[in-house]
Amino acid sequence: MNAPISDLLRPDGRLLVRPTGEWTPDAAADAAELARGRRVPALAHIHEQDKAEHAVLTAAGFVESRRQAVVAISIESALEALGHAALPAGVELRSAADVDEDRLRLLDNELRQDVPGTSGWRSTPEEFRDQSFNDPEFDPRTYLVAVDAPSDEYVGIVRVWMKRTRPRLGFVGVRRERRRQGIAAVLIAHALRAVETTGATEVTTEYDLTNDASRTLLERLGARRIGTEIELVYEPEREPSRVG
């Protein structure tokens, strides 16, 4: 390989690839070679305005798979919008640090099946711990779980990663049968109140442009769009067969 590439095999069987700098023809070719060698799809993410990088990746065989909006949310405005959100009777919030780790992992796997771009996600206990509790941006105050107290069933998750630049709302999800009960709104409100105590005034997040439910919720919170990210995928099985 000629160009330095970092790669991470995700729990959904997709290989996340990144160059150390910009995507160059050599870097894109090496990323495609990695995918072929491991026989797994490779994912690359670029900003919408990076036309040159888009051209380099498509020339190497990557195809655009989805787009997501990048938004910023004022914590003050969001909390004002969520001011009257309340949990259904019997549901309470607990820190991820205070619940059963394996049950939380299984809920995370389940909820990711409804998130564009993460279908097939099945993390092992080791992967989940490493990417959650061992992440330096983990904060037990901003990673919360909604629990149905009478049954002790885990029904929802919110996590805000405490990035140094600006906190990021990394995920919010509720089990299908418990949606439209206001649980997601309360999860977000409690996490944002915890973030606010650190002095932060904004968080960022992303949503897939096909995900109308996420768009509606974030618009309710006053999210303003600050960019668009493109995901491109290279799938080795799409390579034309070579003869001779």
Give the structure's gist in a few sentences.
By secondary structure, the protein is of the alpha+beta class. The protein has two domains: 5-68 and 230-238, Ribosomal Protein S8, Chain: A, domain 1; 70-226, Aminopeptidase (3-Layer(aba) Sandwich). It contains seven helices and ten strands.
Topology:
Blueprint: E1 5-9, E2 15-19, H1 25-38, E3 42-47, H2 51-59, E4 63-74, H3 75-81, E5 91-95, H4 101-112, H5 125-131, E6 143-148, E7 153-161, E8 168-174, H6 183-196, E9 202-208, H7 212-220, E10 224-234
Parallel strand pairs: 2-3
Antiparallel strand pairs: 1-2, 3-10, 4-9, 4-10, 5-6, 6-7, 7-8
Helix pairs in contact: 3-6
User: How many strands, what sense, and barrel or not for the largest sheet?
Assistant: 6 strands, mixed
The helix-strand sequence is: EEHEHEHEHHEEEHEHE
In CATH terms, what is the architecture of the largest domain? Answer: 3-Layer(aba) Sandwich
Number of domains: 2
**Total helix count?**
7
The CATH H-level homologous superfamily of the largest domain: Gcn5-related N-acetyltransferase (GNAT)
Radius of gyration from the CA trace? 19 Å
The largest sheet has its strands arranged as: 1-2-3-10-4-9
Here the CATH topology of the largest domain equals Aminopeptidase
Specify the structural class. Answer: alpha+beta
Residues in β-strands, percent = 25-35%
What integer is the average pLDDT?
Answer: 94
